[in-house]
Inverse folding.
């Protein structure tokens, strides 16, 4: 590092008590307030509310990803990761700081002092290769002959003069657009009251939270006697460490206590009001400073949204625009811009997020990989395809398909309807692929919780004289697991049901949308799946307990959980995408008034049972297969329950369509 300076001898402004700078005021510990407290920017941070406010703004904004974007033609943007400035802003502004360390320091100074400054380290090509923070308290902005100069006080007391092009200057809200208002200066009295009330409360409790009292002595003690008695009394009774100790009065002394005055009680209660004042000063909702009197579970989400829009967004825009205009050349500014990624601040709860994803997916705005990226999940091959609600066809095919559908010739209507049905099955297959990774991710979360808990219980319980304690733990643990499984899978299964319903409804020209009856059916499906998952887990573990020797049981159980962690999530995804497709399609077609269903086999060349069912038509309330043995090409498979829809067996990819 190293500040590029030009020391101007003879032109340095001399400071005098009659014309002081802020730093000179600070030599006296700050400026007096009506409370008697001296307040400067450093002293103000001793107010817990003010410190929390500044810290919240600085940390929250600094923790957001900051990207340099390139404008695309005719619309859109992409991250300009190859530009030299990208890593300076996004990763490391200088060799000594991370992006968050640097930005929270700058934002904190800007909010507190009204301005923040950094020296730009520029390479031979004119690109900014590093940013070095400067202390706002040591900087003065001057205009001399229409030229902006920055006076920076060095540690030895000299002034360094830096030209405008070497300084990144971000001013806060101010009156001239050049320098921002100092929030401590504007809110000095409010901060002073906050500090005074904190001191009052501290002194009140240092006296054991007791009201003032008078000790009456029947005689005359003298000056030394009073001094010695006061000292010994304070040592024995003062402070919280001596609370509730019994005092002994001698020589006929009497204690007269006075109650807490209304003024004292009001002063202590006023500390909460001072939090509101600090919140008003810093433009933050009181609940951010932990004042939850007016917050509730009903409005906290709306208040959080208002926080982003009205409190944090002005600061973010202020920094984005100054980064863009001061760190890029005028030519580059037409092509590049800096912007925070605020999606994380606007995230709702799980149900709200997936509802929004579904809406974006159904209108072609989001691809499955877009959704996975927003959920911080890895993409999968083929997941960049976009779909629209028109039978969930690819966007680039929607126009051609729409033209087919509006052809007026009656003779073509049947062929179009057939094409729609065929495409619907195809699109539901695409939906299976699109949701496969989402089901697998949810399954992995459930499996991870199971395997971790089971392994911990193995270490704790297995190895004792019997496995009774482990079995008791098993029953207790899995008693509450169905609700956890349901919570994890609910957003995915609900959105999958909506997409399947839309495809199936369009297949037969029915209305798209989830009815109350289907909503109940989705809920029942969720309950059924969570119970099936837990039942499968318990049956596998109990089988090992019953069939394995005690000394080998721990190894066997750990082996099974390792197997779960390795492949169970993919098995869940493969099975449930097919099973849920069948269940929701059947319900949607029944709601639309369809009375017959037809089995459509996929991959039938390698599956004699599915091939034997291909094209079979049944009433919509009838099963395709009754319980028993299904024999095809001389091969037998046991069917344990009536099959109303696929999946017939592990790996089955069959579908049902309107018959």
């Amino acid at each position: 590092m190293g500040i590029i300076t030009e020391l101007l001898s003879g032109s340095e402004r001399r400071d005098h008590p009659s014309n002081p700078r802020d730093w000179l005021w600070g030599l006296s510990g700050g400026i007096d307030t009506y409370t008697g407290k001296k307040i400067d920017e450093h002293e103000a941070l001793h107010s817990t509310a003010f410190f929390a406010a500044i810290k919240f703004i600085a940390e929250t904004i600094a923790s957001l990803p900051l990207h340099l974007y390139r404008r695309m033609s005719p619309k859109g943007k992409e991250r300009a990761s190859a530009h030299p400035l990208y890593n300076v802003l996004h990763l490391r502004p200088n060799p000594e700081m991370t992006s968050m360390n640097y930005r929270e320091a700058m934002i904190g100074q800007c909010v507190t002092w009204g301005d923040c400054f950094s020296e730009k380290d520029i390479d031979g090509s004119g690109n900014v290769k590093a940013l070095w923070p400067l202390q706002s308290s040591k900087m003065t902005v001057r205009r001399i002959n229409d030229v902006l100069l920055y006076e920076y006080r060095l540690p030895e007391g000299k002034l360094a003069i830096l030209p405008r092009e070497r300084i990144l200057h971000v001013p806060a809200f101010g009156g001239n657009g050049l320098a921002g208002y100092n929030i401590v200066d504007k809110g000095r009295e409010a901060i002073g009251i906050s500090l005074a009330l904190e001191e009052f409360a501290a002194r009140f409790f240092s006296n054991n939270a007791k009201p003032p009292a008078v000790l009456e002595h029947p005689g005359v003690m003298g000056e030394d006697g009073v001094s010695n008695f006061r000292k010994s009394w304070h040592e024995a009774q003062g402070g919280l460490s001596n609370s509730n100790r019994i005092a002994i009065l001698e020589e006929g002394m009497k204690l007269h206590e006075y109650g807490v005055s209304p003024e004292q009680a009001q002063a202590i209660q006023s500390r909460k009001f001072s939090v509101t004042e600090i919140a008003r000063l810093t433009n933050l909702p009181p609940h951010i400073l932990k004042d939850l009197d007016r917050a509730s579970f009903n409005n906290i989400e709306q208040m959080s949204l208002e926080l982003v829009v009205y409190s944090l967004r002005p600061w973010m825009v202020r920094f984005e625009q100054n980064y863009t205009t001061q760190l890029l050349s005028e030519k580059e500014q037409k092509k590049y811009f800096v912007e925070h990624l605020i999606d994380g601040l606007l995230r709702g709860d799980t149900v709200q997020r997936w509802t929004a994803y579904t809406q974006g997916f159904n209108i072609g705005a989001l691809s499955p990989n877009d959704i996975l990226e927003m959920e911080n999940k890895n993409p999968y091959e083929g997941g960049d395809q976009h779909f629209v609600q028109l039978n969930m066809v690819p966007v680039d095919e929607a126009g051609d398909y729409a033209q087919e559908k509006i052809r007026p010739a009656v003779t073509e209507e049947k062929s179009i309807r057939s094409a729609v049905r065929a495409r619907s099955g195809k699109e539901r297959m695409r939906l299976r692929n699109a949701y496969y990774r989402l089901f697998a991710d949810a399954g992995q979360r459930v499996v991870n919780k199971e395997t971790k808990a089971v392994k911990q219980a193995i270490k704790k319980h297995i190895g004792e004289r019997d496995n009774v304690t482990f079995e008791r733990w098993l029953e207790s643990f899995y008693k509450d697991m169905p609700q956890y499984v349901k919570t994890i899978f609910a957003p995915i299964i609900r959105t999958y049901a909506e997409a399947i319903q839309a495809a199936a409804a369009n297949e037969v020209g029915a209305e798209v949308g989830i009815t109350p009856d289907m909503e109940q059916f989705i809920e029942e499906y969720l309950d059924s799946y969570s119970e099936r998952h837990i039942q499968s887990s318990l049956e596998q573990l109990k089988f090992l307990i019953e069939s394995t020797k005690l000394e080998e049981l721990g190894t066997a159980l750990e082996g099974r959980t390792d197997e779960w962690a390795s492949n169970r999530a993919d098995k869940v995804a493969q099975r449930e995408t097919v099973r849920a497709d069948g269940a929701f399609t059947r319900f949607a077609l029944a709601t639309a008034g369809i009375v017959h269903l037809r089995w459509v086999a996929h991959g039938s060349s390698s599956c004699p049972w599915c091939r034997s069912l291909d094209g079979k038509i049944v009433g919509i309330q009838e099963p395709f297969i009754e319980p028993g043995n299904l024999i095809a090409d001389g091969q037998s498979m046991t069917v344990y329950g009536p099959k109303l829809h696929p999946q017939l067996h592990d790996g089955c990819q069959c579908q049902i369509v309107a018959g």
